[in-house]
Q: What sequence folds into this?
């Protein structure tokens, strides 16, 4: 059959009653849920869905709706007319529809919606006669022209709003519901004049032309800038496309017995099992999410329409039981009758995600494994939100709605583009807006927090901030903003662009200046979830920690040892740098030995405290890794100092000293220090350095053992590429151990291993494993040496272009490159264990805290991952999810396809 015939016979459009929730990929999330709600008998206005496949065909057809898709759309519309006894474009009994997007993955607010489609100069009169409400009819018509003009015709929203403001001022009213019928008729007339002036054509009166334009615009909105940014932020594939949902209109703006609202079956900020949402009387849905009017809490619906409230709460409970997850529900009440327009899995804060998952297990709705899969490991790190120190003596200048928890400080900016630009320069910013729109997504993504003067807890700012894990305060009505001047006002207080403010998204308070922040602690639900994770994961989880404080925090977060203690970080302490420089600049072995003797007790103290904190758990200590010049003054700055001294004869002695230092720094300079005289190469040329470190490690361990502690040192030799390097360094370590053992008179257990971070080490791992008792993959350097990238140069110069051009899907320094770096790791695992079956295998690069990378480590059989202390909980959860997916055959994450 030809492609044309296939397209002609293919089903592109489905009535709601023809679908179900399992058809998400084809019908989009919204369409699948509308079909499912219809299937289980809820009051859903009828309609149909144009599939995501039609969206793909639209782009393949040069951004034109294929004829066969349009024919099936018109057939579905005729079926809808018969179902409702109304006709599209009929002046006496018009059918009006909404046209909404609906991608397979929820992208709230990112794409376009049009309501009241089908109105024109004739049908608006018919609607007025049918309802006996001329004001309502023209309110609906002006809304349609405004949305169609913005979405389809590209006329800025603000130009329509200016006209409404003029009419409100003319009639002396403050809000849209107070505008008269005559006022809305004048708005409609002026809107049509605006359309004609802006486009050169009158506003379309043919409802089919309107529908065609709306469907095309929704398909087009899949690739609008805000949708692209959102997909990039949330790693949503660009190939999915969006469905289009065409649904019969119901009207929440028909008087005081009508209204619209958004509600969550549980509190999306805290996870508490209470109905949470907002309702606007005499309004349409866009009024709530756009923040045009400040809505009332959902509980007020109980007072206004008690019967509707009772039916609503019953149905919300039914939906949550049916979907077995917290639901985000849009609804409309038309003259006392309740309709459900959408349900979807609700966006929630990290705190709420954990609480909901745990409590749903306790309620018997889901099992533990489902709960573990429900929580995105990446949001776990956001659970550790900072908060404002309650001991700080602060006076808030402003109070808004606490829309998304956490606290942040930064410089005020009033524009999303400016927020992005400042953030690129390293500034911390707070984005302050009257209300955010989907076009602000890029500014919100880089901000430390978001503050708005309008909108409620389900406004765009609130929902997006919660999804991003950003603190947000919304609906701060005492805040007046003058974007043109770059100023905001709270009473007599003036906040200018660039001023620093702090906000607390948990309380809604805003403060002038930078507030002191404190680090969070794990909550009861979080601990429970992580305990469940520990029950099912196979991978161990350690921490990268260089100080006793880091080690203590890591242990609090559930680390089962230290996978990387970087000794060079201990050398960088200000009081130690002069001694390290003395060691480096030593002209004789005796001078170097004297400097090392000074460093020895310092290192011993470091290791003593870390071993004490990690009592009974393994601690992997990496011997000195970076090149020695990193501890010396900057060459260019030193050269300038010498030039200056040469111009001053009175400072000859100082000049001689600086010139000697310059000669040494010049001698140590390298063309490519990342591949130069560092790691084990340093140990081979200066074995006394590694001997001093080994002595400090063993002395600390022996002393603690004598005191009754259980130290478990693992000594790691970095940058090994040849087995002979490791043999020589192991000889140094074992000689020092025997010397310290004789001093103390008893034995301790220890391991000697290596960091695998060079491709040659991977492909000769069988040779290296004969000497090494453990491998720890240093994937930061292994990524550099595999790609031939210098990380600093790559990230600063070309890596972003590689991501944009889709040469790489992810930054390989953040998400492990499975096909290249991962292939080398597989070789090392197989070869290493072929020689030493019990070889301990771990990873200590930054990838140890990335969920996709953790999963890969599970797949290839590593024993543990090691991550920064704050990512230990992420790794615990990610390791559990990898084990569950493997056991249940749900398929593993592929971050690189």
A:
């Amino acid at each position: 059959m030809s492609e044309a015939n296939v397209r002609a016979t293919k089903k592109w459009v489905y009535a709601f009653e023809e679908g179900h929730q399992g058809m998400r990929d084809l019908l989009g999330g919204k369409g699948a849920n509308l079909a499912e709600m219809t299937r289980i008998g809820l009051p859903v206005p009828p309609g149909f869905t144009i599939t995501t496949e039609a969206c793909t065909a639209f782009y393949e057809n040069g951004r034109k709706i294929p004829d066969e898709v349009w024919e099936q759309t018109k057939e579905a519309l005729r079926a809808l007319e018969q179902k409702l006894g109304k006709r599209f474009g009929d002046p006496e009994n018009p059918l009006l529809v909404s046209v909404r997007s609906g991608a397979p993955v929820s992208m709230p607010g990112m794409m376009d919606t049009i309501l009241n489609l089908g109105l024109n100069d004739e049908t608006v009169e018919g609607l007025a006669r049918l309802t006996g409400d001329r004001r309502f009819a023209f309110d609906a018509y002006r809304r349609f022209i405004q949305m169609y003009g913005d979405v389809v015709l590209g006329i800025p929203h603000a130009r329509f709003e200016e006209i409404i403001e003029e009419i409100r001022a003319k009639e002396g009213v403050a809000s849209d519901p107070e505008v008269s019928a005559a006022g809305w008729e004048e708005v409609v007339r002026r809107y049509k004049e605006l359309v004609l002036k802006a486009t050169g054509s009158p506003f379309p009166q043919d409802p089919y032309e309107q529908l065609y334009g709306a469907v095309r615009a929704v398909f087009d909105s899949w690739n609008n800038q805000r949708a692209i940014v959102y997909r990039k932020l949330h790693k949503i594939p660009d190939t999915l496309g969006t469905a289009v949902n065409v649904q019969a209109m119901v009207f929440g703006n028909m008087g005081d017995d009508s209204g619209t609202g958004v509600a969550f079956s549980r509190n999306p900020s805290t996870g508490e099992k209470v109905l949470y949402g907002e309702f606007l009387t005499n309004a349409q849905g866009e009024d709530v999410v756009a923040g045009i009017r400040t809505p009332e809490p959902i509980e007020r619906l109980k007072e206004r329409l008690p019967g509707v409230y009772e039916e609503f709460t019953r149905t919300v409970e039914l939906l949550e039981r049916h979907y077995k997850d917290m639901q985000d529900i849009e609804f409309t009440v038309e003259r006392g009758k309740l309709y459900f327009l959408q349900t979807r899995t609700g966006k929630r804060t990290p705190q709420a995600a954990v609480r909901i998952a745990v409590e749903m297990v306790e309620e018997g709705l889901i099992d533990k494994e489902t709960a573990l899969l429900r929580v995105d490991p990446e949001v776990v790190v956001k659970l550790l939100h900072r908060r404002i120190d309650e001991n700080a003596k602060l006076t808030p200048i402003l109070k808004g709605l606490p829309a998304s928890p956490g606290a942040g400080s930064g410089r005020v900016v009033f524009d999303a583009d400016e927020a992005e630009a400042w953030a690129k320069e390293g500034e911390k910013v707070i984005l302050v807006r009257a209300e955010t729109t989907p076009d602000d997504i890029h500014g919100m993504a880089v901000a430390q927090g978001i503050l708005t003067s309008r909108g409620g807890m389900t406004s765009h700012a609130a929902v997006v901030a919660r999804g991003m894990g950003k603190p947000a305060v919304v609906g701060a009505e005492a805040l007046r903003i003058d974007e043109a001047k770059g100023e905001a006002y709270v009473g007599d207080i003036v906040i200018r662009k660039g001023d620093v403010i702090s906000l607390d998204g948990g309380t809604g308070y805003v403060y002038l200046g930078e507030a002191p922040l404190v680090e969070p602690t794990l909550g009861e639900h979080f601990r429970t979830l992580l305990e469940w994770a520990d029950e099912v994961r196979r991978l161990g989880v350690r921490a990268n920690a260089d100080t006793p404080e880091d080690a203590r925090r890591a242990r609090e977060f559930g680390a089962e040892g230290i996978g990387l203690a970087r000794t060079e970080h201990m050398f960088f302490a200000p009081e130690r740098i002069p001694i390290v420089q003395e060691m480096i600049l030593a002209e004789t072995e005796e001078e170097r030995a004297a400097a090392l003797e000074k460093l020895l007790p310092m290192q011993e103290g470091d290791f003593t405290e870390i071993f004490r904190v990690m009592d009974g758990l393994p601690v992997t200590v990496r011997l000195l890794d970076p090149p020695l010049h990193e501890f010396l003054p900057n060459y260019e700055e030193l050269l300038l100092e010498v030039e200056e001294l040469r111009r001053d004869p009175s400072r000859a002695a100082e000049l001689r000293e600086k010139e000697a230092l310059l000669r040494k720094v010049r001698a140590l300079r390298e063309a490519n220090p990342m591949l130069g005289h560092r790691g084990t190469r340093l140990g081979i040329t200066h074995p006394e350095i590694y001997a001093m470190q080994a002595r400090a490690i063993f002395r600390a361990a022996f002393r603690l053992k004598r005191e009754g502690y259980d130290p478990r040192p693992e000594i790691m030799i970095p940058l090994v590429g040849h087995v002979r390097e490791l043999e020589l360094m192991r000889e140094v370590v074992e000689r020092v151990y025997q010397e310290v053992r004789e001093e103390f008179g008893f034995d301790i257990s220890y391991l000697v291993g290596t960091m695998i971070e060079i491709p040659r080490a991977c492909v000769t791992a069988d040779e290296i494993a004969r000497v090494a008792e453990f491998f720890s993959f240093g994937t930061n350097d292994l990524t550099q040496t595999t790609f031939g990238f210098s990380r600093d140069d790559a990230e600063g110069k070309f890596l972003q272009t590689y991501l944009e051009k889709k040469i790489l899907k992810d930054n390989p320094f953040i998400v492990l490159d499975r096909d290249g770096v991962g292939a080398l790791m597989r070789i090392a695992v197989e070869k290493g264990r072929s020689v030493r079956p019990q070889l301990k295998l771990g990873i200590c690069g930054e990838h140890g805290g990335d969920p996709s990378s953790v999963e890969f480590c599970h797949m290839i059989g590593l024993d543990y991952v090691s991550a920064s202390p704050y990512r230990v909980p992420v790794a615990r959860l990610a390791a559990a999810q990898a084990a569950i997916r493997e056991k249940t055959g749900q398929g593993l994450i592929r971050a690189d396809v």
The first strand starts at residue 13 and ends at 15. The chain has five domains: 11-248, 259-345, 385-518, 537-627+670-888, 634-669.
